[in-house]
Structure formats: C-alpha cells, structure tokens
Amino acid sequence: MTIALYPGTFDPITNGHTDLVRRACKLFDRVVVAVAAHPKKEPLFSLDERVALAREILAGEDSATVIGFDNLLVDCVHEQGASVILRGLRAVSDFEYEFQMAGMNRHLAPDIETVFMTPADHVMLISSTLVKEIAKLGGKVGDFVEPRVEAALAEKFR
Q1: How far apart are CA 4 and CA 86, in angstroms?
Q2: How many domains, in total, are found in the chain?
Q3: How confident is the model at residue 125 (pLDDT cuts 50, 70, 90)?
Q4: What are residue 20's phi and psi, to 5 degrees?
Q5: Which of 30, 50, 128, 132 is an active site residue?
Q6: Residue in 41, 46, 122, 136 annotated catalytic
Q7: How far, in Å, CA of 4 to CA of 22, rounded?
Q8: Which structural domain range is residue 112 located in?
Q9: N or C: which terminus of the chain has fewer CB atoms within 10 Å of its end residue's CB?
Q10: What's the CATH number where 97 sits?
Q11: Closest CA to 132 of 8, 5, 13, 48
Q12: Do β-strands 3-8 and 30-36 pair in parallel, antiparallel, or remain unpaired?
C-alpha cells in the first residue's frame, strides 16, 4: 500500500489543492492531506479551522484523509506510514524552493521520496495568498475555492 502525504498550510484550501488531491487519489492507495500549523506564517485561519475546511471539502474522497501537524515533516510522514511526500508545482518560481526542500527531506529521511505534480490548467494560477487578498478587498473568489471556503473567507473579513 502506497501512502502519499500532501503537506501545506492550506490557508485556505483552494480548488488547486483539491484538484491535486483528487488526481493523487488515483495514483496512490491513500493520500494524507497534512495541514501544517506554521505559526510563523501567521495564517488567517487557525489550524483547527483549516483542518475542518479541508475535511469538509474533501469528504467525498474516500482515499483521502486530513490531519493537522506541528512537527518535522519527515517525522509526520513516518507517523502516517507514508513513503511519499506529494508537492504541487504551479510555476517555475515554485521549483527552486521545492527542489531545496526535497533535497533536505531526502537527507533527513532517505526512505521517503518526493513526487511533484502540477495542477490542472484551469486552477494552475490559484494561490491561497492571492485568494485571501482578493477576498479581503471584497472581490469574488468563487472561481478559486469551494462555496464553504468562500463563506468562511467572507466571515473572516466581515
């Protein structure tokens, strides 16, 4: 059984994230969406809120589970029995950082492989940061996130 762990802040989860999860579920026996606490990033949503939103949005994906974590990524991967770290690449600008992280994770845990996937064309340019900025300024984000996430953003910026 091959388990992939897809880590991220997911602040908030976007249609790009869900596209990646749904496609990864076809490739791996199980996909663990691991929501990072990451307090240094000062997320808009609390860890519990981000986990709850991700669980709600991914409820229909039987082979996907959502957890929160606040420890070293490779330790979380081992705790979940995963052997793959799944990372999304939207643009070339993502590659340098992700390449460096993959090398460091391989050094820390040589038994874990990193696999990169790109989102589908129609969701490739979506980022949580841009979604939050648009929502904060009163713009419509319904093309980028599920309705429940759109409502949660509206509530935060009310």
Answers
A1: 6
A2: 1
A3: confident
A4: -65, -45
A5: 128
A6: 41
A7: 12
A8: 3-156
A9: C
A10: 3.40.50.620
A11: 13
A12: parallel
Of residues 17, 30, 50, 87, which has the active-site annotation? 17
- Residue pLDDT, tens place only, 52-68: 999 999 999 999 999 99
User: Which region among 64-73, 91-100, 105-114 has the lowest average model confidence (pLDDT)?
Assistant: 91-100
Taking the whole predicted model, whether its pTM rises above 0.85 is answered as yes
Respond yes or no: is residue 41 known to be catalytic: yes
The answer to whether 38 is a known catalytic residue is: no
Quote the mean pLDDT of the chain. 95
Among candidate residues 60, 80, 59, the one with its CA nearest the CA of residue 68: 80
From the candidates 23, 38, 90, 106, which is the catalytic residue?
A: 90
Nearby residues of 28 by Cβ (< 8 Å), 6 or more positions away: 2, 3, 4, 63, 84, 86
Known catalytic residue: 40?
Answer: no
Backbone angles phi, psi at 45, to 5 degrees: -100, 145
- The answer to whether residue 90 is catalytic is yes
